[in-house]
Amino acid sequence: MAPVAMPVPLQDAPEYWVEACRHLIKRDRVMKKLIPQHGGVCLQSRGDAFVTLARSIVGQQISVKAAQAVWDRFEALPKKMVPAQVLKLKVDDMRAAGLSARKVEYLVDLALHFANNQVHVGAWADMDDDAIIAELVAIRGIGRWTAEMFLIFHLMRPNVLPLDDVGLQTGISRCYFSGEPVSRSEIREVAANWAPYCSVATWYIWRSLDPAPVAY
């Protein structure tokens, strides 16, 4: 049998990326086909923690295009997109940027959590995934899915399995179950072969639906 060609990741790939790809190709028949199709791209971190979470709140329940337009207007309001500056903004100005009253409340709560050190950014490197999720979901407007996307895309944690992610559900349905709907237990069963690199496998499942890498 000919060896499977390994993708060549970008220079700023997570340190575990190549090892994760080897593991997944060896353990999973779908990954064996999927990973070589997407060489030269990989998971990449974006922005700082506060900005990443603020963008996730702004983008809730609206299209990507609309979210970008609102974010561009909101981003222009403070001198710098940092918690202390956001807390100085007037509610009317934030509403005029296109934010709903609820999203204004969420962004203020996010800024307060950061300004008051209620999230332990400096300690996250030593905290496990569940502990970080617990901190993040205590912020209004941030649920488990947003916290999991943050773990994957900002902290680049290798073994996150976002069970409620529609893209993951759809991709597993198509790739493993011939398009049949899948349960959470079936997703866990598939992912048993992925561990300890569920984030990487999830990223490739997303690529099976849309080749363009997504960032949060």
Could you report the average pLDDT, rounded to the nearest whole number?
90
The assigned CATH architecture of the largest domain is: Orthogonal Bundle
What order do the SSEs take from the amino end to the carboxyl end, as H and E?
Answer: HHHHHHHHHHHH
Shape: elongated
Low-pLDDT regions: 1-9
Please characterize this protein's 3D structure.
The protein has 12 helices and no strands. The chain is mainly alpha-helical and 216 residues long. It has 2 domains: 17-44 and 160-209, Endonuclease Iii, domain 2; 49-153, Orthogonal Bundle (Endonuclease III, domain 1), CATH 1.10.340.30. The chain is elongated, with a radius of gyration of 19 Å.
